Amino acid sequence: MALPPVVGLEIGTTKTVALVGEWREDNHVNIIGIGEQESAGIRKSQIVDFEKVCAGIRSVLATAEERSDVSIGEVMLAVDGARIRVDVNRGMVPVLDKSGEITQDDIEQVMDVASAVNLGSDREIIHTVNQHFYIDDSERVINPEGLRGARLSLDMLVFHGSRNGLGDMLRAAESRQIDVQDMVFSGLCSALAVLTTEQKQSGVVVIDIGGGTTDYVVYIHGIVRTAGVFSLGGDHITNDIAYAFNIPMKQAERIKREYGSARVNEDDGIEKVKIAAEVGFAGCEINRKALNQVINARTDEMLRKVGRELQREGVIHQLGAGVVLTGGCANLDGLCAIGENVYGMPCSVGSPRNFVGLNLATAGPEYASACGLVQYGFRIAQEEKVTSGFSGWFKGLLGQ
Amino acid sequence: MERLEKDIGFVALGGAGLGVAARLQMDVSDRVCVSVIDTDARALAATAVGVKLQAGSKRTGGQGCGGDVGQGRLSVEDEMSAIRDLVLGQRMVVVFAGLGGGTGSGGIGTVLRAARESDCFSVAVVTMPFGFEGAGRLEKAAQALSAVQETADLVLAISSDRVVEHIGDRDVATTFALADAILGESVAALCNLFVRPGYIKLDLGDLRRLAQHCGAPFSLGFGAASGKDRVDSALRQLLDGPLLNAGQVLEQASGVMVGILGGEDLRLSEISAVMSGIQLRTKADCQLVMGTTIDAKADDSLTLVLLCTDTWDDEAPPAPVLLADRPKPVRGSRNHVKKSQLQPLLGLDMSGKDRFKGVEATIIDGEDLDIPTYVRRGIRLEK
């Protein structure tokens, strides 16, 4: 039986995207429909105008339905925002079987215990990802089933966010009579879409710089080691430009995309960028070097903030595969060069892997999270099919 | 890094800072924690200051940053966590740098930011370059100074030319040694005022009040003498010396702070003579605060330190609102935020965060990241 199509919905600060994907036997996802539109009513991944957001969602879902010829009943929802945090929680259970053999029941039980985190009443768990199992507190294993021991422990990475913020997103998505199957942290989706198994093994950080937020996810020895969110993004770059040259946000956004670079070249000084006049704006010329100075300062700072977090977590020296940049800002010229300067390790732009179909969707790093979201949806569907239910360590592996 | 629990932190940056720190350490109370930060490993190794922090060893290989402000800033930023440890828990942090070079001009902002994050009163003492160093260096220093004024609670700006004029025409080595001595002693005197008992006490509140009212950088006056005529001689140096432009700066001043440091033989009549001497030269409505420090080691000598500024704003600005403490809009009640809560935010409208009004500010480590980075880093755009 073929898997039913999966719909991923991402409500970003810059754009709202719905992707409809079909699973192909060669482990590729075929994107059969896409609905996309500029977001309105969102700042830094927080909803500031509920009605506008709902209208945007309705419209992208309608477009996606029309293009893919699939009637959308449920979606996977990518969530993002400043209030998302991750914590590692360890759970431990005694092994029930007298012979000490670890069974599926033990694994389920330890996962229950590990995911029972005591969060404040204003927090809600988004999802969890397994890190390592420990048998009798010593051996690290990925799948303990069938092994023997007296105690089974598990380190679990728990993603949680503000109850109100997540609730708002959920309500907005469900405003069009659809069900939200699952919520996934969008940084994790980006990582899923662009990374290879080898990269995850040798240690890598995916930094997704979107319009409103910057997410990062760190893999070491094949597991998700840590993750986080900053409320910094492309909008900050645009705002800095608008402020520096006293031009409207719209023009600032345009020159950022067309002429902006994170690198400052000395030769840029002579070049001028013309901004055409339009209603309510007289038009002007700005110095290209100054433009790049503004962008350089902001991007350098954003990457440094992430770098400091990586340093605090003690992972910065374990990233053998370097840094992968995704999100809309990864398209910015010179960002990799700045990243290499800041981190002293190779940086590359990550685009979704194993996708076919609409060229638009498979092309750029700005679609990494939406594509990863669809992939995540298929993994859940596959595991449900294999295990005929939703159980065991499979669910914990989804993020990996 | 090891740091003793002390009241005042003194952090000196760059080449100019090393000399002053070494000198200051001799005069200052042991309740002041003296530390130096430099990118030049060899210069750092040669000084005898308690706490040393080598910045940017990865970037510059310990060879200094060659006057490159950007390198200086990045190098010092790299050491942010160590700097935070340095200032943590201090009541006041005095940061010294010679502006116009790389490490000092670039790094001072980072140290001040660390001080602000840990909620201590910050005083920036900076020297401006010599006229003969050229317009480029002066320009660099002026830019750095305006950035410093944004972050520090109180700024004391000293012209190198005037310090040298004060010393007189000597050979180079003596001149620099004496310049370090004047700067070191004045800053040491300032610090001592707050940590040593002195009968007429000056506390941090006085300084805070002075700083709140006065927007512009302060000027420094200095006079030291010993022996019988010490009052006259020290006063003459202070009032007629070049540091205050032969008293002209003082005559314009609207806010003045005087510190008198003497030995156990300091008499009240001498204090009174000093103060009346100063008051003769100030405006009638000048705001004047004073304090004394008695140090047994300083018997027979008298040191006068004066800070003054010519702007005095009667309407004190609202008490500084710490970024981290600013009221956060309550989720879901955006439209009902009380007016009084919004008030402190209004001052920031000029700071270029239009787009992010109405959503929670992005504040990381006490820094409001919604304000454009180039503004906070003091980068001059080549428009």
Structure description:
The complex is a heterodimer of chains A (400) and B (383). Helix content of chain A is 36%, strand content 30%. Chain A is α/β, with parallel strands linked by helices. In chain A, a hairpin with a 2-residue loop joins β4 and β5. The longest helix of chain A is centred in the C-terminal third of the chain and has 25 residues. Chain A starts with 5 loop residues before the first strand and ends with a helix. Chain B has three domains: 188 residues, Rossmann fold; 92 residues, Tubulin/FtsZ, C-terminal domain (60s Ribosomal Protein L30, Chain: A), CATH 3.30.1330.20; 38 residues, no CATH class. Chain B has 15 helices and twelve strands. In chain B, strands 3-2-1-4-5-6 form a six-stranded parallel β-sheet. In chain B, strands 7-10-8-9 form a four-stranded mixed β-sheet, with helices on both faces. Chain B is globular and about 60 Å long. The interface between A and B is medium-sized, with 36 and 27 residues.
Strand order of the largest sheet of chain A: 11-6-1-2-3-19
Total helices of chain A: the number is 12
Number of helices of chain B: 15
What percent of residues of chain A adopt helix (DSSP H or I)? Answer: 25-40%
Q: Termini of chain B, distance in Å?
A: 42 Å
Do you know the CATH topology of the domain at 197-349 in chain A?
Nucleotidyltransferase, domain 5
Which outline of chain B best applies?
globular
Strand order, largest beta sheet of chain B: 3-2-1-4-5-6
Order of helices and strands of chain B: EHEHEHHHEHEHEHHHEHHEHEEHEEH
Mean pLDDT of chain A: 88
- Unreliable spans of chain B: 315-350
Number of extended strands of chain B:
12
The largest β sheet of chain B comes out as: 6 strands, parallel
